[in-house]
Amino acid sequence: MILRLAWAAAVLVxxxxxxxxxxxxxxxxxxxxxxxxxxTPGGKPQVAVGKQYNDLLSSNRREDILAARDLVLAKPALxxxxxxxxxxxxxxxxxxxxxxxxxxxVAKERxxxxxxxxxxxxxxxxxxxxxxxxxxxxxxxxxNGYAFCDLAKxxxxxxxxxxxxxxxxxEVMFMVRAPALPGDRADNAxxxxxxxxxxxxxxxxxxxxAKTREAYYVTRKQNEADVKFCWKYCPPKQ
Length: 238
Prior knowledge:
Elements: H1 2-11, E1 30-31, E2 35-36, E3 46-47, H2 51-57, H3 62-74, H4 81-93, H5 97-115, H6 123-147, H7 151-167, H8 185-208, H9 210-222, H10 225-229
Antiparallel strand pairs: 1-2, 2-3
Helix pairs in contact: 1-6, 2-3, 3-4, 4-5, 4-6, 5-6, 5-7, 5-8, 7-8
């Protein structure tokens, strides 16, 4: 529930108190032990989400980040939500912000679906539970700040992410050693995906209301969110 509330809060515009009104081009957060952003521009972050991903995701080369994405796409069944969160952050950092939005939503929805099948409060899953919540709270406002520059595109990304989660079930949910909630795991997973679709539909309906959209854009203007997040990416000169 806390993660869902954090997500709902992130839909509203990020407060302008913490960051000046200038383009936010980098997500400078850390979530130990999985990710620590580089302390200086141009530096390499520390990544610890899996040996097949770490070097690629710590690179500042766009092609390396895309290579990490392709590894996830090739074998998605056991990819953790933490890996997907780091992928989303690094996609944002290299200017692939639409991809960042999609993978952030995939990570979030995969985790929420998992949390309705497995008992994430057990010791075995406590670290993952804490990490995903931290990623959502710290990176979410930035990624959503960009996502909601275009409400139609944001709706599309969210719907596609939920569909991707349904099409690529997280196999960890069905491992005997993973502590489960009461009930049949397959039934709980199916119900969780239905819940995800319902959340996406409610979010879409919320912004379909003209008064809601108008109030939202007023808030964005007050917080100078467009300056922070709706800038056009220009590739660095070689």
